[in-house]
Amino acid sequence: MSLLTVNNLKVHFPIRGGFFNRVVDKVYAVDGVSFTIQAGESFGLVGESGSGKSTTGRTIIGLEKATAGQIQFNGQPVNTKHERKKLNYDREVQMIFQDSFSSLNPHKRIESIIAEPLKNFEKLTPEQEKIRVLQLMKTVGLAPDMLYKYPHQFSGGQRQRIGIARAVATNPKLIIADEPVSALDLSVQAQVLNFMKQIQRELGISYLFISHDLGVVRHMCDRIAIMNRGQIVEVGSRTDIYQHAKHIYTQRLLAAIPSTNLSKRQQNLEHRQAVERKYQAHKDDYYDETGRAYPMVEVSPGHLVSLPPKQALQYKQLKEDD
Ligand SMILES: Nc1ncnc2c1ncn2[C@@H]1O[C@H](COP(=O)(O)OP(=O)(O)OP(=O)(O)O)[C@@H](O)[C@H]1O
Which PANTHER family does its entry note (predicted)? Predict the structure, then answer.
């Protein structure tokens, strides 16, 4: 059974204007998104700024209200407050944010920041709470003498570890990590990502890993969904996405990954320019006249792509011939 199922999720924001402040238009931030996450899996949600990734994550955790669609946790609906409470959902699903500086209260010491979810969900004595906080600090590699320090006394990487300690405090099953390393230097990014993997192995957590960067997601995720204009346009395994990408938008995101090999820089630049020309020439073919992505077709087991009708037909016929 899937741990999390998101079915046809829509989140539309009203745009108000005019003299009476009426709703004059809508932002279709998330517009029919479906995916599943298995227990222990890392699922990546990738796309450019504004594609609707954060809104999807924020809606799953309950920070935004869904306009339509269903969310299930362990096969049970979690669309109402009552349903969430019944399944301990607010405890089982936690979130890590990009900007650890603004997500950690600057006036609180690390001790009370990490203890916050414990206070909400567990009835511990002050001594038990302190022991648990120290355990959590050890898990994320922070020394015990840091207990009474404030967030500004830590580096960006350490602050992300504090955010992770707070997120794992309630032993969650799923962590939504929204751009957890994009504010960090490259060398620190690798450290935090490896650390997140280690924690996953130790605690058996699933991740919904949100990023604009296919390079970062490559090392973290088993399956990846590519989001564009509020919709998922391609989803598949790591191999499907990195070696057999079919959607023009995925190909463009892949070409944007910077090369670490200096001697290949020129070659990569030329490749990126060629992909960009192809994208500009053909991108409209991938959307219908209303700007919506076409229905997904399964191009190989588990690899689904939204393709223009002509291309989609080829795959459908291949399937029928089988
Ligand atoms: N509360 C809101 N009210 C109105 N529009 C919103 C709101 N939140 C997000 N949006 C709009 O919804 C769209 C999707 O935003 P979202 O933040 O989900 O994208 P994203 O892919 O996560 O990008 P980024 O990485 O920049 O956050 C954007 O056009 C954004 O301006």
Answer: TRANSPORT ATP-BINDING PROTEIN
ipTM of the complex: 0.96
**Identity of the amino acid at 57:** G
What residues make up the domain containing 34? 4-105+173-188+204-321
Look at residue 84 and tell me if it is in a domain.
yes
Domain count, the chain: 1
Kindly state whether residue 125 falls inside one of the protein's structural domains: no
Atom from ligand 1 closest to the CA of residue 11: 12
Ligand 1 in contact with 256 (CB < 6 A)? no
The residue whose two tokens read 């020309």 is 277
Specify the amino acid at residue 5. T
pLDDT digits (tens, 9 = 90+) for 216-263: 899 899 999 999 999 999 999 999 999 999 999 999 999 988 877 777
Instruction: Please spell the DSSP secondary structure of 146-210, one letter per residue.
Output: GTT--GGGS-HHHHHHHHHHHHHTT--SEEEEESTTTTS-HHHHHHHHHHHHHHHHHHT-EEEEE
Q: Whose CA is nearest to atom 31 of ligand 1?
A: 50
As a whole number of angstroms, the distance between CA 160 and CA 154 comes to 10
212 lines ligand 1 (CB under 6 A): yes
pLDDT given at position 322: 66
Token pair of 34, please? 């479906």
pTM, 2 dp: 0.91
- Among 80-94, 129-143, 258-272, 296-310, the minimum mean pLDDT is found in 258-272
